[in-house]
Amino acid sequence: MDRLEVLQQVLIYDKILRFSIDLLTGIKGEIKADLEETKLLAESLLDEEERERIKNFLNFIEESFVPKLEEVLDGIYSEYEVFNFDITFLSNVPEELKREMDRLELINSINYGLNLLKEELERAICEASEDYECVKAILTSFSIYKDLIEHTLEFNEKFEKVC
Predict the structure, then answer these.
(1) Global pTM?
(2) Residue 70: CA atoms inside 13 Å, Cβ hemisphere, count?
(3) What is the DSSP string of 17-62?
(4) What is the pLDDT of residues 48-79, one digit of tens each?
(5) Helix axes 106-129, 140-162, angle to 10 degrees
(6) 29 neighbors 70 (Cβ within 8 angstroms)
(7) Within 13 Å and on the Cβ side, how many CA atoms surround 32?
(8) Residue 75: exposed, middle, or buried by beta-carbon count in 10 A (0-12, 13-18, 19+)?
């Protein structure tokens, strides 16, 4: 294995790990405000049945999605620490570093967690907004999160082919 190829792979993995961490940290930081905003919009714009759908959705976000988001984020942080340790420890042996990076399957691991988040969010949005266009409109912020995660998955898959 050529040292330049290993270097390229290390740099790609480093960026994918950091971008994924930044994305999930950003979503985590924004969710609280979006929960409050969604509650306010539901109270002022929706009828009782639609408000109940929003309430159930927000309960799902707080009780299920946010903990899963934190779990995935913690997992990616852990992988980043292992990755950095391996780079430091194996930096003079590119063949071993390459084998270790292949063993870690970083992109697959990251995408697995991201895909779980995307699917949960997508399912919850669909259930909450089924036949209710107003509910769907109010949940736009959460749809954007789903789309961001989906784009990140596609981005990561593109670079997996390079590695």
Answers:
(1) 0.89
(2) 8
(3) HHHHHHHHHHHHHHHHHHHHHHHHHHHHH--HHHHHHHHHHHHHII
(4) 999 999 999 999 999 999 999 999 999 999 99
(5) 160
(6) no
(7) 4
(8) middle
CA 119 → CA 30, 116, 143, distances in Å?
Answer: 19, 5, 11
For 76-113, write each residue's pLDDT tens digit: 999 999 888 877 776 667 777 777 777 778 899 999 99
- The position carrying tokens 């209710």 is 132
Q: Give the number of other CB atoms < 10 A from CB of residue 107.
A: 23
Q: How far is CA 10 from CA 86, 106, 112, 130, 149, in A?
A: 10, 11, 20, 44, 23
Structure tokens at 37: 């905003």
